[in-house]
Structure formats: structure tokens, C-alpha cells
Amino acid sequence: MQVGIDMGTASGGTSATLDIEELLATRLLVQGNSGSGKSHLLRRLLEQSAQWVQQCIIDPEGDFVTLADKFGHVIVDGERSEAELTGIANRIRQHRVSCVLTLEGLDVEQQMRAAAAFLNGMFDADREYWYPVLVVVDEAQMFAPSVAGDVSEDARKMSLGAMTNLMCRGRKRGLAGVIATQRLAKLAKNVAAEASNFLMGRTFLDIDMARAADLLGMDRRQAEMFRDLKRGNFVALGPALSRRPLPITIGTVETSARSSSPKLMPLPDAKPDVEDLIFTPDPEEFLRPVTRRTPPAPRPTTDILAELSRSAPAGATSVTEPRPGRAEISKEDREERLGAVLSEILDDPGSAFRTDSVLYQEFLVRLRMRRVPGPPLALPDFRRRVAISRSGVDVATAESDSWATALSLSSGVTDDLQGVFLMLAKAAIRGEPCPSDARIARAYGTHSARRARRLLSYFEEQGSVVVHTDFGGKRIVAFPDMDCQTAPGDPNAPDVADGEQTAAE
Known about the structure:
Layout: E1 4-10, E2 15-19, H1 20-26, E3 28-31, H2 38-49, E4 54-59, H3 67-71, E5 74-77, H4 82-95, E6 99-102, H5 108-123, E7 133-137, H6 140-143, H7 153-169, E8 175-181, H8 189-192, E9 197-200, H9 206-216, E10 233-238, E11 242-250, H10 274-279, H11 301-310, H12 331-346, H13 356-369, H14 379-391, H15 395-398, H16 401-410, H17 415-430, H18 437-444, H19 449-461, E12 466-469, E13 475-479, E14 484-485, H20 498-504
Parallel strand pairs: 3-8, 3-9, 4-6, 4-7, 5-6, 7-8
Antiparallel strand pairs: 1-2, 1-11, 9-10, 10-11, 12-13, 13-14
Helix pairs in contact: 4-5, 5-7, 11-13, 12-13, 14-17, 16-17, 17-18, 18-19
């Protein structure tokens, strides 16, 4: 079904129509400096399409919560744990409810984590719930920055990964990204490049005008026009809008934002005793309680989930008493359940490219869902188990003295490198062909073969391994401390699973 919504007036007085069905397949990028009318444009788009498609708005300033009164959007407060937000997002997809995730009151890093958890929850929904959703992200440069800022690297990776999934892989899952940014130069290029429709508003900086002109296929000399655009005026291009750059004026909206541009107001008449009014305290001030709100330092959600898993119910008289309906299990049975949950997570092909903290959150949630008793694994222990699982070691090899030596040696490398180190050690102990660059890259959580080669060079510089080639140009990795080495392997071979590689050999 083809549905066109009216965005305003195009040049020549004709109606500017946006094809919603085409937009769902091709995504939209909106750019313009502060005050150019981006939020007004997004509100017009949301209002006009509310009856046709489910909507989800990532709202950093709480401007779009007013959509709830007229169009019935559910307001989701971002001040929740990441696990809660992921669950809410998943249920929103199941029940096809439009919502606004308001992040007002959170600092930048908390906003990034909350948005990432919510987007990941929508992205990871079961296939049967892949209904079309218009996902609008305002101030997208905050959630997909082109360079690292003051936030932690973990938060930046988590947020950027969620935005990349939305724009690059979301189409098949029914997610249509609509992102708005003040500056194209601050937005990650791999996120911006996936949009096929553009609405470019007023822009002043040369670098942003040049990028806008490149995206619209315009000459660099024509980029000067972006400086002269009035508020609410945009240049449209894309299969859902126009096949040629088309100036349009955005129409009126039915709802209003809670915040608006400041207006000039006359100052009050000066009073002769103004100094007394300012410097003399009101007697009632001393009776009012001082309510300075000092936000607590953000705690990692992984620690909170671990505490929830350990804590007893409110009002419990003894933490040692087993809860009704939950039988105690043996240590061996518990270890078996932990291993089964871990295998479920790591069997997902996409798990190799998700951060350990995200996998840890999912691990804790699954343990609680299956009611596995006992304290949960700490994050360092979880990372260690993930590294061992990703190495692909079998039971017989795991019980050997050589593997014990490999585990001891792996403690000398950082957590993110242990999986790669143990995978190479397992291949050397069993005499298997040296893993290819693509296989090493996947074990490290990247697609870059160049980075895989740098990891081998790093291990060699540390004295852990010796890398050399045979006469056929195949690579061999030797471990002097274990007195073993891999069989020759093609570094350019495609990435295959361990079982497939053994069969092929």
C-alpha cells in the first residue's frame, strides 16, 4: 500500500509529498543548525504518519512527549536500568505501540546507554514481531559521534553499535531510521551513509555545507544556498521525496513542544529598592528545606543486575532459607546450567561483535529467567569463560597440561585479547592449521583483517609467540613456552567455524 503524507509546500506551490512505504525501505537524514526547524520537521512527519505506521522517538530533551496527548504515544522514562529498557522495547515491538523514550534529566553518557539498550531491544525482537516501525532519533550526533568525546569508550561503542544496527541492518527487521543532526561533521559517516533520503536545512560552516552538497549531488558552489535558507525551509532529495534537489517549506503542526525559542520580553519597571530586594533574604527562605539535587555517580548496570540476582526479597527473615518453589541444586548441576546459558548466548553469530558488558547483561537476565540459584558470575569471571568458550577447546584438550599452561600464559594479556590468544594456543596444542586473518578478527569482535595481523604482531613483540611462514607462504604460529606450534594455515582463507574448518582439512 502506497501512502503519501503532506510535508508542506514545494517550490511552485505544489504539495511536498513523502512516500511512507518508500521511507521505510530507504531511511531519512535531516540536517540543520540549531534553530533551522529540525524538530518542527520531525513533529510534522510524526503527526502526519501517526495513523499509518508505528513510531518510536528517541528524545534527548523531552520535546516530543506532547505527542502522547493527541496521538496516544506511550512515554518511556529513560531513568531505568538497561535490562528494563531492553525488555520494554521488546514488548513495544510485540504489541505495536508507538512510544517516546524521553532522556531528559540524564547526563550524556547515561543518555547514550539508555538509547543503546532501547534500540538493541527493538533490534533483537523475535522475527515474528518484525513489523514496520519509524524510529526517529533527534540529536543523532550524540548517539553516533564521529570521534570519541568525554564519555567512556564502552558507552560510545555501545551507542554507536546500536545506531549502526538501526541504520545498516534495521531494514530487514522493519526498523526505518530517521536521524536528525545539527552537524554532519559530528555524525559518524557509516551511520549517515546508510540514509537514501535527505532534508538539508540552514547550515553555516563550510565543512557541513560541503558534505550536504556532496550528499545531494550538488556542485560545491551551490552549497552557499544552505546559508540563505529560512527557518522551516529545507532542500529535499531521495526516492521517498524527490529525484532532484527540491526546496520545500514545512507545514504547520498540531502539537507543540514543551520548549520553544526564546522571545524578547520587556524588562520590569525598575524599583527604587531593588538592592534591598536582591540582598535581603525573605524570612520564609530559612524555613524552606534546602533541596539541592546532587545526582549520584552512575553505577554500571551490570553491578545492579548482579546485586538483584543476589538480593533476598523484602521482608525476608533469613537469606539462607530457600524460596518456595526453587529447589537447591548441586554445584555440578549449576555449572552445567551456567554453561548452557553461556552457550545459548555465544551460539548467536552476532555475539562475536557485541561488547562483553552487553553479553554479560543478557547472561544475568537469562539466569534469572531460568531461576538458576546462587550468586552470579562476576564480570571478570564471565569474560574469562567467554574467552575460553570462543577458543573452541574440546574436553580432552581442556584436561591436558599444555592447556593449563596456555591458561596461565593468557592471564598475562588483557581481557579483550584472551579469546584470540587461547584460540591460537588451542590450534597449536592440537596441531591444527593456523586460523586465518578473518577467523582471528571474528574472535576479537571485528571485521578488520589488518587488525588481526596487528594482534599477531603484538603477541610476537611480547614474546608470547613466534610467527613464521613455510615455503608455500602459509602461516605458522609457535608457542615457545608450550613447545608446540600450529600447522601451516592460509592467512587469507575465509572465516569458517572450527568444525567446518576441520572437515575441510
